[in-house]
Amino acid sequence: MKQRPRPPCSAWAEKLALRPDDLSAADREALEAHLRQCPVCAAARADYELIDARLRALPDPVLKPVPRLASLLNKFGSEEELLSSPQFKRQAQSVSNSHLRLGRRSRPLRQRLWTAAAALIAACLMLALGLPLLHQVMKSGAAGPGTLLVTYRGHSSAISSLAWSPDGNSLVSSDLRGTIEVWNALTGTLRYRYATNAGIAYAVAWSPNGRYLAAAFENHTVEVWDTETGQRLFRFTRHTDIVYALAWSPDSQRLASGGGDNHVWVWDATTGAHAVIYTGIFPVTALAWSPDGSYLAAGDTGNIVRIWNVHTSNPGTPLLSYTDHSDAITSLSWSPDGRYLASASKDGTVRVWNARNGKTLRVYTGHHGGVDAVAWSHDERFIASAGADATVQVWNPFSGEVALIYRQHSDEVTAVSWSPNDQYLASGGWDHTVQVWRAP
Fold this sequence. Notes:
With 440 residues, the protein is α+β, with helices and mostly antiparallel strands. It has 3 domains: 11-56, no CATH class; 69-142, no CATH class; 148-438, YVTN repeat-like/Quinoprotein amine dehydrogenase (Methylamine Dehydrogenase, Chain H, 7 Propeller), CATH 2.130.10.10. It has 6 helices and 28 strands. It has helices at 13-16, 25-37, 39-56, 69-83, 86-101, 109-142; strands at residues 148-152, 159-164, 170-175, 180-184, 190-194, 201-206, 212-217, 222-226, 232-236, 243-248, 254-259, 263-268, 276-279, 284-289, 295-300, 305-309, 320-322, 329-334, 340-345, 350-354, 360-364, 371-376, 383-387, 392-395, 402-406, 413-418, 424-429, 434-438. The strands form 7 sheets. The chain has a 4-stranded antiparallel β-sheet, with no helix packed on it. Strands 2-3-4-5 form a 4-stranded antiparallel β-sheet, with no helix packed on it. It has a 4-stranded antiparallel β-sheet with strand order 6-7-8-9, with no helix packed on it. Helix 2 (25-37) packs across helix 3 (39-56) and helix 4 (69-83) runs antiparallel to helix 6. The two termini are 14 Å apart.
């Protein structure tokens, strides 16, 4: 049974519901510091921001507010007092005679009062009964799993890679024209764009501490930027062919890059120092660092996944080689506990296997065509995979049960990523869009 989510901290509940502009500078600073330490409150804040963004996007209301019943009664009461005056009686008699001549009769004032009151009461009852129904519809349909929340259309070419910021507020996406854009994940508003002349950006990766952004390029280089200033910190130039894959170490100190030169380089992310080369025999297309930082996995076009212990392994001799795929490896993702690896391949499968001994746990065959991307949720419950059939499929890695198939893309899906709180998924592909939608 799914656990009931823990509510946000009571001491911060009121401030979480307010917009940042409504808080004092001191309260904003204190709240941001708390959100960095409390994932529950951070998830609640993300939900508030999503609701606020969707409300702002709504059109102006067509229906006007219903007048209060008390004001209507007061108005009618004053007319009855006016009725008792001789002047009003003479005017009323004149109007009544005119109506009689036209063959019409005016309804008594008291009857009009009760008719209006009855109509207003009926409207209130309909509203009271309709709101719970609307809530159920929103809960089960409009805001349910698979609901599209944001479509980002800032790219003019196919999406090659995407990643969430560690705080869950932003997404970075790259395309085959080399454009790299950072935008608000809840509103789709562009925040900034990285301009380069390095050709296709094949991979983008956000450091776990949120301070750095790295991109791998067609011109054999990797660039690292400071996310606060937008300034480039370092440009790695030791590859001799296209760089296809990137992976940050969990401590955000080192970066692994792999490419068409059959090599994986591991280096200090901001200086390029202490570089170590791991050699292979095929172009490297996927990289993933284990959650504890001890192991590095690399997938290649020779259908092989290799694992090295970065502390003890000989760079020329992997600790383990997994050879069960029959076509090129496209994507890798570790389970949060570091026990298993999920590997996606052009052979149309995702394989979940034990990273210690290479024993296959499950083979997922739900896609039609090659699988381009795979991502394990942070709570370990689901794997999301995407591919040539233009779908994103969310499934249980241990039972194989499918939780959701997302079909809103119109072409091949090449990238998928979970939000840090696992409430949303982002997917991008050949239709030039990145879509953010509700996860199961």
